[in-house]
Design a protein that fits this description.
This protein is mainly α. It has one domain. Helices cover about 85% and strands about 0% of the residues. It has four helices and no strands. α1 (about 1-20) packs across α2 and α2 (about 25-60) packs parallel to α4. The longest helix has about 35 residues, at about 25-60. The radius of gyration is 19 Å and the shape is elongated. It starts with a helix and ends with a helix. The model has no long low-confidence stretch (mean pLDDT about 85).
């Protein structure tokens, strides 16, 4: 929650620098944006976890990550490190989706994985 507030203040400051006025005038909307970023991060984690379990079914020898631990670590991190983790999760999700599509394509064509 602390990191969400820090992110909201950062967004509000950027709004104030760009458009003028008081930072507090931008805080309400900035909180909505910061909260939405956090919800997106959580949904990305859930989707990665689903993809990971799907991969485990298709390819039993694949590694299963502990996303609950990753979430707890991200919550406990400092602001900068948690922002970096959120970006990395988004990149991991993009790569995992691409990898899963390639594997499903091979499986559907009857090629050994």
């Amino acid at each position: 929650m602390k990191n969400i507030m820090k992110r909201a203040w950062e967004i509000a400051r950027k709004g104030q620098e760009q458009f003028g006025g008081k930072i507090s005038e931008y805080l309400s909307e900035a909180l909505k944006v910061a909260w939405n970023e956090w919800k997106t991060f959580l949904s990305n984690l859930k989707e990665l976890e689903k993809l990971n379990h799907k991969m485990k079914k298709i390819k039993p020898g694949s590694k299963v990550h502990d996303y609950a631990m990753l979430l707890e670590r991200t919550k406990a991190e400092t602001y900068d490190r948690s922002r970096m983790a959120m970006k990395n999760i988004a990149i991991m999700l993009k790569n995992a989706k691409s990898h899963m599509r390639a594997i499903e394509f091979k499986v559907n064509r009857g090629v050994a994985v």
